[in-house]
Amino acid sequence: AEVLLEELDHVGPATAQKLMDAGFTTVEAIAVSSPAELATAADIGESTAAKIILAARQSADIGGFETGDVVMERRKLVGKLSTGCVEFNEMMGGGIDTQAITEMYGEFGSGKTQVAHQLAVNVQLPKEQGGLDGSVIIIDTENTFRPERIKQMVEGLSEKYGQEYDYEEFLKHIHVARAFNSNHQILLVDSAMELANELKNSDKPVRLIIVDSLTAHFRAEYIGRGTLADRQQKLNKHLHGLQRFGDLFNACVVVTNQVMAKPDAFFGDPTKPIGGHIVGHTATFRLYLRKSKGDKRIVRLVDSPNLPDAEAIISVTTAGLRD
Ligand code: ADP
Ligand code: MG
After folding, report:
1. Is 292 a pocket residue for ligand 1 (Cβ < 6 Å)?
2. Which CATH superfamily is domain 5-60 in?
3. Is CATH 3.40.50.300 the classification given to domain 69-322?
4. Ligand of minimum distance to the alpha carbon of 142
5. Where are the domains of the chain?
6. pLDDT tens profile 111-124
7. Cβ of 141 less than 6 Å from ligand 1
8. For 268-298, how does the pLDDT look when each residue is reduced to its tens digit (9 = 90+)?
9. What is the position in ligand 1's atom list of the atom closest to the CA of 104?
């Protein structure tokens, strides 16, 4: 069961409330904070803050070392989720990895949400069909989740595999929550952990979490240079929470990021991802999506730790993603 802040040594009800108000809603968040940061947030002395952090670290059991064989065991479990597109899968070394964050960035309309919907369908398929036999959690920040689209894609699968699929069954394994602001969005990762825990031993454990969009609320709420550091710090914590989710549940973590036009760029691509290098350094795989002719989209793999930079062409059709 989750440890409540008040159960930590040196944290009374008032301090717990102040910590929560400042966004330190979990023991993990406290465990990775600095004494100065926590002292300011909860209006306490730095030495008390240091003691609280120590208590949180012991309670959360983080910062511990793992031996290589344990890491190896976990890595053996890494699953591959099919995108439904041959080139795209090949570029990703077979599919989207579990235990990793995959970021899709691109302009409005480049297909990020479409790919997310397709993955939410595919993850439910059996392994022979490129799925992970799992359910999916979607944190929807832009209100773009469409069950009708899932229905079309499931019908597309029936066509593709010449087998009947029931779209209502697929919808039952998609858990969607709207996030109303960035704080709510971060809190929803904790709720997602609870839900994933509940489903852990079911026939459809959570194997995919999608945050669409990762950055929209952050961009809207943190405007101006002065608040940028604050934004990056929060985004960083959020991403680490998501990475932890991926590791704990052997799930794919897929986040989207809309790029803004950068009209002063004369060379290269006139766009750059929101969240800049914070997202860049935390995401394991970065995919840059752009529009091409008709329903074609170009997906470019950028900066992967173990795969060459490459491009794949996909089509976004009514029946779903196709080659
Ligand atoms: P974003 O990158 O902003 O999330 P989307 O994933 O929402 O972009 O992509 C929107 C595009 O997806 C539309 O412009 C259209 O080309 C395509 N699309 C959306 N719905 C359908 C559909 N039912 N049938 C075919 N194409 C669709
Ligand atoms: Mg979208």
Report:
1. no
2. 5' to 3' exonuclease, C-terminal subdomain (1.10.150.20)
3. yes
4. 2
5. 5-60, 69-322
6. 999 999 999 999 99
7. no
8. 555 666 666 667 767 789 999 999 999 999 9
9. 2
